[in-house]
Amino acid sequence: GAVVSQHPSRVICKSGTSVKIECRSLDFQATTMFWYRQFPKQSLMLMATSNEGSKATYEQGVEKDKFLINHASLTLSTLTVTSAHPEDSSFYICSAREWGEDGYTFGSGTRLTVV
Amino acid sequence: RKEVEQDPGPFNVPEGATVAFNCTYSNSASQSFFWYRQDCRKEPKLLMSVYSSGNEDGRFTAQLNRASQYISLLIRDSKLSDSATYLCVVTTYRDDKIIFGKGTRLHILP
Fold first, then answer.
1. CA distance B9 to A71
2. Residues of A in contact with B97 (CB under 8 A)
3. Measured between CA atoms, how close is B33 to chain A, in angstroms?
4. In this complex, is the C-beta atom of B4 within 8 Å of any C-beta atom belonging to chain A?
């Protein structure tokens, strides 16, 4: 089945620094990828839809200048958390759907801790 | 009304029992429906898609009721390993948005 690789799985960074998270579709092309954030004991919240070759679509309340998304190829989308603050600490997950497959495949997630 | 609603639970069910939970959605134009399972601090994993005719996969049965705009998940002969959070997922046409329910926590008791 489809596999989505996400890394790093865990990152601790200092407040004010930027962190890049990569999401790769393995063995399939993904023109669209989705980025989610999950706070403890809460559900996944869609942050943005990443579109290959064009600008990402951000959900209401998500700052596009803070969460930079780049989808430069059909197999790679990156999310950069710029000038991270402790309140950005969360579990970030990407997902993609292989054409013809049921459901969405998720990356293993990135646990970001900003200190 | 929230786009996708689930009873958060927790459902505490003895091992071997049958448990069912529902998920309601507000957008009548919703196209695709899924149940995902999420274990603590892990990513969600697809449990099953939900088809209009209903579908079954082993001990799991999913149903879709478009008229009442809900989907259901039935787990028979529950196992301890079924303990998890079950997320209802609804997508709109062409997958331009995937909406997650908040999840239903299930605890299977020995």
1. 37
2. 46, 49
3. 8
4. no
**Helices and strands per DSSP (H, E), number in chain A:** 0, 11
Least Cα separation, residue B42 to chain A (angstroms): 7
Residues 6 or more apart whose Cβ sits within 8 Å of residue A100: none
Max CA separation in chain A (angstroms): 42
Contact A28, A99 (CB under 8 A): yes
Please say if the pLDDT value at position A64 is more than 60: yes
A97 vs B contacts (CB less than 8 Å):
95
The encoded tokens of residue B68 equal: 């009442």
Per the CB < 8 Å rule, is B43 touching A93? yes
Rounded distance, CA A47 to CA B93, Å?
19
Contact yes or no for B42 and A109 at CB 8 A: yes
Would you give per-residue pLDDT tens digits along chain B (110 residues)? 678 999 998 999 999 999 999 999 998 888 889 999 999 878 889 899 898 888 999 999 999 999 999 999 999 999 999 999 999 999 876 556 778 888 999 999 99
Q: Is B7 on the interface with A (CB under 8 A)?
A: no
Question: Which of A34-48, A63-77, B85-99 has the largest mean confidence?
Answer: A63-77
